[in-house]
Structures are given as C-alpha cells and as structure tokens.
Amino acid sequence: MDLALLDKTLAAGGQPKYRAGQIWDWLAGGVRGYHEMSNLPAGLREQLALEVPFSTLELVTEATAKDGTVKALFRTHDGHPVEAVLMRYKDGRRSICVSSQSGCPLTCTFCATGQMRFGRNLTPWEIVDQALHFRRKEAINHCVFMGMGEPLLNLDNVLAAIERLPDIGITHRRTSISTVGWLPNLTRFIDEVEIPIRLALSLHAPDTATRNKLMPVNEKYPLEAVLAECHRYSVLRKRRVYIEYVMLSGVNDRPDQGKALAKLLGREHFKVNLIPYNPTGGQFDGSSRERIAAFLAELERGGVPTTVRLTRGRDIQAACGQLAAERAPAA
Ligand code: SAH
C-alpha cells in the first residue's frame, strides 16, 4: 500500500491522526483487505477501497516448488515486472527474497536479470508490498535483498522499506542487503546507516580478469577497493560480511582459485557462501558437486568459514530474474 497516498487521503477526509497507524497495524498483521479492518468506520473502508489500492503490486503468477519455496511474479501499476520468493526451512525460518528494482542496470553475464531491460527503481511501498504478500500467507522472519536489482542503486527507498519490516516480523539483524559493490553508496551505507543490517557482497571471483568477465561493474569499482570497504564495515560493526560466490563450471571453480580466494579474504572478517548456479540458458554451466567440494576444502584449509547454499525452488525457476525474463524477452 502506498502509505504516502494513504496519509494524504486520510488528511483530506479529515480523519484523526491515529487512523494511519491502525491501518498499518492491520497490514503488518497480514490482513487481506480493507474489509477485515474491523476498527475502521464502514464508510471509510469503502472510501479507501476506491481511492487507495490495497497493494501497489498486482500478482501475475505464483508457483510453489516441491520444497515449499514460493515464487511470485507481480506487476507495478505502470507495468513493470517484480519478483519475490518465500523460502521455508525445516527449522522454522521463513525467509523472503525481495527485489529493489524492476530489472537491473548492471549486466552481470551469468544473471537472468542482467540480460533484461532495466525498468526503474521500486518505491518503498512496492518493496514493502512484496513482504506483505507473503505475510498474508504466514509469519515471516528473515529478508534478503537478493531479488531483482541492485539495492545500493536504490538505497533511500530500500532503507525506507527496511524501516517497516520489524513490524512485519523481520528485525534489522535478520535483514540482508546484497550488493555488487557499488562503491559510492557502499561507503554511504557504512558511514550513515546505523541500524544493524547485514551486508553481503557478490564477489564471484578472486581476481580482476575473472571478475571483469562476470561482472562488468568491476571495471568501474575494482574488487580490491570494494573488499577494503567491506573490511571496514566488518571492523566497525563487529560482524562478518557474507561473500556470495556463484560456482560456474570451468570459470571460477578451480582449486587454485579457491586458494586465492582464501588468501584474499583471510580468516576474520568474511564468511563465504558458495552458490550452486541455477542455469539460465546462457553461456554458463554450474559446477559439479565434486568441484564445489574441492573448492570448499581450499577455503576451509585457509580458515575461511564457508557454507554451500541450499538450492531452493529449482523446479520453479527461482533464480534472480528468471521468471520475469521468461515472460518478457530480453531487450
Ligand atoms: N544486485 C545484487 C542483488 C541481486 S542478485 C547482487 O548482485 O548482489 C542476488 C545474488 O544472486 C547475487 O549474488 C547474484 O550473483 C546471484 N545470482 C544471480 N543469478 C543467479 C543464478 N542464475 N544462479 C545462482 N545465483 C545467481
């Protein structure tokens, strides 16, 4: 729901100040429509239903994988695709993966979103509405900005959305922003943002030549400079930065690259998450289990805490940008 439009509409109707808070409480608790907001006058409920859309996003399709992962594709009022995913884990964790932009202006060569046309930044409400969509199904408690888009290119709206998440059940400590390392806003994020959001960096290569090939942004903001900033964040916040590393067969998965990565990161400030590649029909294949295990062993030998990401929702194309890209062919 566009809460700015809501405020304006309530003010124009001469409603008492506490109304907006009442409505937000209902939304954050997962109601499905104005009709469920039983402490609002009936006339106001009817007026709001006509004047303030209940969600800024329209659901286009939704699919549930065998492992319980739910992937939703939405459309903004001006027709831009937005994807979000709900991941359900056995330990009770309910993690949502949300988009910060429709499409992405970066052009990472292995990423489905990177091959799509960039649409625009999402508003705070379009981000919050992704969370509310899943909140209407069940309680949720973690959020990662690993859907479409680069959160640091839409930092103000992302932060405005994050401010609302604790009411929905997601504390700041359980909220992660994932970035390619867009340096100016990474610096701003470190210097200006005081809430304890977790930082994840998409690194994907231990050296310049390989990273340039995968992530053209590396030519603008080289990995050494980006890692130095992440190191600063880790020292300042006393919290490890997650390093995302997507495993691409024959590209970045050699044991010597694992060794180089361990040396680059050191033992103290980072934690690596190796990501099995979700093929997108492009030029890359995912690494085999054996290759991932050998790479993992190199990192462990170097003393770097490392996990291998569980693959979720593969049968519903849950990788970044896959659903939207399928519907709207590349530009
Ligand atoms: N722009 C941000 C956030 C979006 S992508 C960033 O790049 O960090 C979230 C993560 O998913 C990134 O680490 C990205 O590299 C990874 N990713 C993208 N496409 C993927 C795919 N097909 N399979 C596995 N991981 C993928």
Can you describe this structure in just a few lines?
By secondary structure, the protein is α/β, with parallel strands linked by helices.
User: Can you give the helix content as a percent range?
Assistant: 25-40%
* Tally of distinct domains: 2
Rounded average pLDDT: 94
Number of distinct helices: 12
Strand order of the largest sheet: 1-2-3-4-7-8-9-10-11-12
Here the CATH topology of the largest domain equals TIM Barrel
Poorly predicted sequence stretches spanning 5 or more consecutive residues: none
Distinct compounds present = S-adenosyl-L-homocysteine
At the first level of CATH, what is the class of the largest domain? Alpha Beta
CATH superfamily of the largest domain: Aldolase class I
How many angstroms separate the termini? 30 Å
Largest sheet: 10 strands, mixed
Quaternary assembly: single chain
Quickly give the structural class: alpha/beta
Q: Describe the global form.
A: elongated
DSSP strand content:
15-25%
Describe the protein's topology.
Elements: H1 3-12, H2 18-28, H3 42-51, E1 57-64, E2 70-76, E3 81-88, E4 94-97, E5 101-102, E6 120-121, H4 124-135, E7 142-145, H5 155-168, E8 175-179, H6 183-192, E9 198-202, H7 208-214, H8 217-220, H9 223-237, E10 241-247, H10 255-265, E11 270-276, H11 289-301, E12 306-308, H12 322-327
Parallel strand pairs: 4-7, 7-8, 8-9, 9-10, 10-11, 11-12
Antiparallel strand pairs: 1-2, 2-3, 3-4, 5-6
